[in-house]
Amino acid sequence: MPRVARARVSMVSSIHPMATKDEIKYYASLKQKKAREESGLFIAEGRKIVAEGLKSPCECARLFVKAGTPKSDPDVASLLEGWSYETLGELDFDRISDTENSQGVIGIFDYRKLIIQKPTADRLIALFDLADPRNMGTITRTCDWFGIKELLIGETCVDLFNPKTIRSTMGSIFHTRFILSKNLVDELGRYRETYKIVTADVAGTDYRAFDYSGKGIYVFSNEARGPSDGILAATDEVVTIPGGGKAESLNVASAASIIVARIFG
Amino acid sequence: MPRVARARVSMVSSIHPMATKDEIKYYASLKQKKAREESGLFIAEGRKIVAEGLKSPCECARLFVKAGTPKSDPDVASLLEGWSYETLGELDFDRISDTENSQGVIGIFDYRKLIIQKPTADRLIALFDLADPRNMGTITRTCDWFGIKELLIGETCVDLFNPKTIRSTMGSIFHTRFILSKNLVDELGRYRETYKIVTADVAGTDYRAFDYSGKGIYVFSNEARGPSDGILAATDEVVTIPGGGKAESLNVASAASIIVARIFG
To answer: What is the ipTM score, two decimals?
Structure first.
């Protein structure tokens, strides 16, 4: 298993030993949840996201640049400056990459510094049974925009460190701290002593009339099925976004954006 | 070119002639913008979306069900009842399908009844240079939720009838009317006589302080580049969603959701 090492070096642009074929294969395997869980490593792709990762407390195990990426481009140059990176041929790079528009930069990061064991913020977002990695990433980005720093991720959600989630966060993954729940219903039950548990669903209080002051955990649920009976039983208040049009529902990331924005006025 | 015909029949479940190999190939070609533009046809996939299509004024050219889809399932049965459909083998179905989870139902619809030539509503959303079909679809769905019935689509946006856009609308494509702009900047300039043109961007009026009464066109722009100088020149007021966190920007569908929700209070 490759060693994870903080690779900041000064004025040396490439001192890392070349990645072997086996290492490339190993890093490509980080597209799978199992390999991520075993190692604590994940793939961050794209200039903005990698730049945020390098500024974060997360260890960077490896930094890859695709052959042909213009290293004299000011964005790329400032990203790579002071870091040890390796240029990979197109074939090797694309094995690790998950996108057609990777912008030629991939970082392999350790996510463990992003994980916390219990809530410390006054307001958190909790996600129950989310299936679409893009929704999860977009919600993380919206939370980061408004300054919500902690997310509680239910055990049946799509994996947070899925490359598609990471890309949708646009770097916000590195600004946020996550509690990876083992049993969201139980945990909400416990946190209820200190937090008001507020769940978005049909047929609740109009979200515009709700009082967002005080400590709260705001729960958003599966795209098709909504909150479970268990989640509703652990809920102090249900909030609803009234519509008036003909759509049957809102996208969960849209609903979360509307309510998170409202928390701030 | 296959004939487009309204195929509602009573109590007859399958009278359509079997699709030939050439027809399957033709319908699969509707994944490409060029083929859609030439024919006015597009692919709608998934039970909910097809059901909304069949309720809409759009002509349904063909209705395909994947072999093995349980036609006794109440959802599928009520969807197909009274319509002429054809069961396709997995291979043929998958050639037309764009998704791994198609739910076994595809409708080929004519989009021309969804197109209008100029705005008639009091409030519209305009999209400038949007690149991600999912963002476009999600914005359409949010608009439909809040009862915004008309969208103005800039000429450099990703194609509205892209299968990924359609899927993200979750059927709202059929509830909405679209003006397909040939020159968005010019058109906004003309509509400005009757509508206030309001563009979301950094550094404008706080969206919470803005007065949304009266006729307005609300413009949302490219995910990375934002509004162009031309768009800003055609703008009466810029509105901004203040953050306070560390994200550099909001996802455009999230921003649109927040502002559209605010239009309604």
So the answer is: 0.91
Q: For B206-261, how does the pLDDT look when each residue is reduced to its tens digit (9 = 90+)?
A: 999 999 999 999 999 999 999 999 999 999 999 999 998 999 999 999 999 999 99
pLDDT in tens, A9-53: 444 344 456 778 899 999 999 999 999 999 999 999 999 999 999
Element (H, E) at B75: helix B74-80
**Could A145 and B261 be called an inter-chain contact, meaning their C-beta atoms sit closer than 8 Å?**
no
Of A141, A244, A265, the CB nearest to B250: A141
- Where in chain B are the domains? 21-112, 123-263
Q: Which CATH architecture has domain A21-112?
A: 2-Layer Sandwich (3.30)
pTM for this entry: 0.92
Interacting residues of B3 by C-beta distance below 8 A, sequence separation 6+: B61
Q: Is A15 exposed, middle or buried (0-12, 13-18, 19+ CB in 10 A)?
A: exposed
The answer to whether A264 faces chain B, any CB pair under 8 Å, is yes
Nearest to B254 among A247, A257, A264 (CB): A257
What is the C-alpha separation between A196 and B264, in angstroms, rounded? 27
- Domain A123-263 fold is Alpha/beta knot (3.40.1280)
Q: Is B258 on the interface with A (CB under 8 A)?
A: yes
Cβ count within 10 A of residue B167:
23
Going by C-alpha positions, the residue among A43, A170, A35 that lies closest to residue A107 is: A43
Measured CA angle at B185 (ends B180, B187), to 5 deg:
55
